[in-house]
Amino acid sequence: MKHLTCxxxxxxxxxxxxxxxxxxxxxxxxxxxxxxxAPYGNWWWGAKHQILIKAAELTAEGMSAGDLNxxxxxxxxxNGNALEDYSVSIKHxxxxxxxxxxxxxxxxxxxxxxxxxxxxxxxxxxxPFFWNGTDNILIDICFNNTSYTTNDKTYxxxxxxxxxxxxxxxxxxxxxxxxFVQTSSDRPDIQIDWTEPSIPPNAQFNASTxxxxxxxICFTDLSTNSPTQWLWDFGDGATDNTANPCHTYTSxxxxxxxxxxxNAFGSDSETKVSYVxxxxxxxxxxxxSCTPSTLNGALGFGITNVQINTLNNTSGNSIEGYGDFTCxxxxxxxxxxxxIEVTFSGPSTSNGVAWIDYNNxxxxxxxxxxxxxxxxxxxxxENIIISPSAVLNTPLRLRxxxxxxxxxxxxxxxxxxxxxxxxxxxxxxxxxSPPEANYTSDVIKSCDxxxxxxxxxTNIPISWLWDFGDGSTSFAQNPTHTYTASGPYDVxxxxxxxxxxxxxxxxxxxxxxxxxxxxxxxxxPTTLGYCCDYGIYKVQLNTINNSTTNGVEGYQDYSxxxxxxxxxxxxxxxxxxxxxxxxxxxxxxDYNNxxNFDDATEVILDAPNQINPSTSYTVPIGFxxxxxxxxxxxxxxxxxxxxNSCSDQTFGQTEDYGVEIIDxxxxxxxxxxxxxxxxxxxxxxxxxxxxxYHSIEQLHVVDVTGRIMKIxxxxxxxxxxxxxxxxxGHYFIIIYTNGNRFSKPFVKL
Length: 749
Description:
Elements: H1 2-15, E1 19-24, E2 29-30, E3 46-53, H2 55-60, E4 66-77, E5 83-93, E6 106-114, E7 119-131, E8 136-144, E9 153-158, E10 164-169, E11 182-184, E12 186-188, E13 190-195, E14 205-207, E15 211-212, E16 216-221, E17 229-233, E18 239-240, E19 246-248, E20 253-263, E21 266-278, E22 302-308, E23 311-314, E24 323-333, E25 337-345, E26 350-356, E27 370-377, E28 379-385, E29 395-404, E30 420-429, E31 439-441, E32 445-446, E33 450-455, E34 463-467, E35 473-474, E36 480-482, E37 487-497, E38 500-512, E39 536-541, E40 544-547, E41 556-557, E42 563-567, E43 571-578, E44 583-589, E45 603-610, E46 614-618, E47 629-638, E48 653-662, E49 676-678, E50 685-689, E51 696-703, E52 708-713, E53 718-722, E54 729-737, E55 740-748
Parallel strand pairs: 15-21, 24-30, 32-38, 41-48, 42-48
Antiparallel strand pairs: 1-13, 2-9, 3-8, 3-10, 4-7, 4-9, 4-13, 5-6, 5-8, 9-12, 10-11, 14-16, 16-19, 17-18, 17-20, 20-21, 22-23, 22-25, 25-28, 26-27, 26-29, 29-30, 31-33, 33-36, 34-35, 34-37, 37-38, 39-40, 39-43, 43-46, 44-45, 44-47, 47-48, 49-50, 50-53, 51-52, 51-54, 54-55
């Protein structure tokens, strides 16, 4: 028996050799006999607690992935009362704060009746709980008596985050159906028995940079399961056996790096093929006139990724300070369009800016050489066109800067208060391809006939020929043209450079409706200072269905582009979608067409203190200026921001639209030979064919009193309307096509 006891003791010591007791908390306070959190709290019949421990706290104590064998709470004063069905459960969680009860736990102790005692009360798990080494853990403890005494007083320490969520009650079922939930940052002190896993490491590593012009790269071991030995193979014949070595490559090329990590239980290797690139003596841009620094990198702001063309660099945040990545290069073509994408880090949004030193003088001009900017974002993505006047075939400096948006927008030489600056290299070459013709315009529907065109052709054209579709042409790059007749027009642009030409034609690109122009409004409100998602996101009334950004755009006049026809006495759904905040919203319709909006007689929606207001709007009879385009004004602003139709907005905005109130009987009879409505009379289906010159936009079926019986949208030169549900009688079909409106009587049999 003596030999057996000795063997058992040796075996126990061998198994327990790697067990470690981890203590979290310093005992700075205790709960009282009536206050919570209290893991042994019987001031109420039952108490349920969930206690959050962050992974960073455990790793700070030297823990890695492994088994948790028990936990303990430290009692200052014990009252000697048993706690019935006391249980402990654990789970992994990604939550960074304890705000509500979670589910999905694994029970590791109990339920048993437990009587706390002075000092550390250890609850040994029925089976170990394996902590994965990366996630936070959440501990659920609960009991439920049928009477109450007082709490055992337990030591606690305050945490910088909400670490405990709890509920108490004088009833059964506290553990299964907790009542009122409370939270606290006073967390009971905890001891955890942890066993380092008896498994080999999982080898992992990273490098300080994937490109180097100097040859120096520092490597960091990220292996799990506590390696004790390391073997690095840098791919150039050199090796190292320290945990985090720095190595200097002496030749150019791309190198494969391997780390073998070892502990008492075995080894593991990670190989990254063609991982680092060395370009000793690579051409770099002209030295910059300034090198901004990071003043405070502790908050985690900064730049973590920059992409443009073939350049794609991932880096740390502002704790690294200024990053010189000028040995990383990409080639761009002058006049071509590229997307630059920059990812920021940090607990909040940043202002970001990028520049290219196009003239290679070492001075980055904040106006002429700025290529991208974003305010208050977590990233910056912009399409840029490379300047055709850039110095060619020479390394040029690309600078990217980002800082917390509480600070001023960065300029090329400003130090970053919390962010950082990174520099890269671009080489710009001449593209020998012909242009790719492309263009845009300020409007595609015009009521005054004036359209401003903008050339978007790539590959640096040097001459342009515009054909506006009305017999007029222009050789200007960005011409303004005035149409003198209504109708749709095809627009053609031919762009030319020394390598060739290209032509872009868009059929029916602009639509001119000279008769739809509204008289000017007596005032144009402005947005004084956009903020916080206030403004108008969408306006819907009959055929008007216009989605926009928000108050950041300020005043917008959509009265030509978005116009609808309403009939006297008919009702329509009117909706204004606003930002997520509560708004005051008001809509006027200038019935008498005098350019003013009367608050007594011309308000059609008044919705204070609402989100996304809507109403059923009935057009008055005998009150309007008929068959004339009228201005509808929509204003939405922060509560209290609207005084009248001319008041400037605090955060929101004003939008104007066009409305024409018509009498169906006044619509011109169809007399064009290529528009056919048949069969007439009809029992069930009415067919409309407008030929090759007219595209149907919408169809209205109205009775002889002007009441709308049916509305149908279309997008072709023919359509069918089901009228089978109509009673027999006389009706009109009103056809909207190419900015015109026609009617045709028909008989329903």
